[in-house]
């Protein structure tokens, strides 16, 4: 398959499409620091329309609130780069899209914006599943490293988000 993406991301996106199609699952993506890369990776794969209905690029806090229904209090309390905000993004994407699974990504890709508590390379993820109790937060925080470039951090985050969209092994 010809692609503009790095081989590892293209291969993982192909797996996401094939395995979710086989499982009869639809997916939605809510992205901040990846700026649409996860959605772009999925749509590089022929037949991706069978599984992908919606991708939301919510780079600003305002977009997170208006497009996904993230409560301003959550952003004010925990910050945009928090599992709480990613969880709210994933829940919003799931609700608005009607998908079976949604993944959300928010982080500090740099080169600016890092803090002592959330250094450059910090990326948070959350997964929401249809029918799951919304109080059961499925989230993760990764430290990809302050020594990585913006491009590397975004690529690592894209790859990890794609992995989170894979159905569980039978």
Describe the structure.
There is one protein chain. This protein is α/β, with parallel strands linked by helices and 170 residues long. It is 41% helix and 19% strand. It contains six helices and five strands, in the order αβαβαααβββα. The chain has helices at residues 7-23, 37-43, 61-68, 72-78, 83-97, 150-164; strands at 27-31, 52-57, 101-107, 122-129, 138-143. It has a five-stranded mixed β-sheet with strand order 2-1-3-4-5, with helices on both faces. α1 runs parallel beside α6 (150-164) and α2 (37-43) packs across α6.
The order of strands across the largest sheet is 2-1-3-4-5
Shape: globular
Distance between the termini: 27 Å
What structural class do helix, strand and pairing data support? alpha/beta
What is the CA-based Rg, rounded? 15 Å
Low-confidence stretches: none
Mean pLDDT: 95
Total beta-strand segments? 5
> H/E order of the elements?
HEHEHHHEEEH
Strand content: 15-25%
The level of helicity is 40-55%
User: Sheet bearing the most strands, described?
Assistant: 5 strands, mixed
Determine the number of helices (DSSP H or I, runs of at least 4 residues).
6
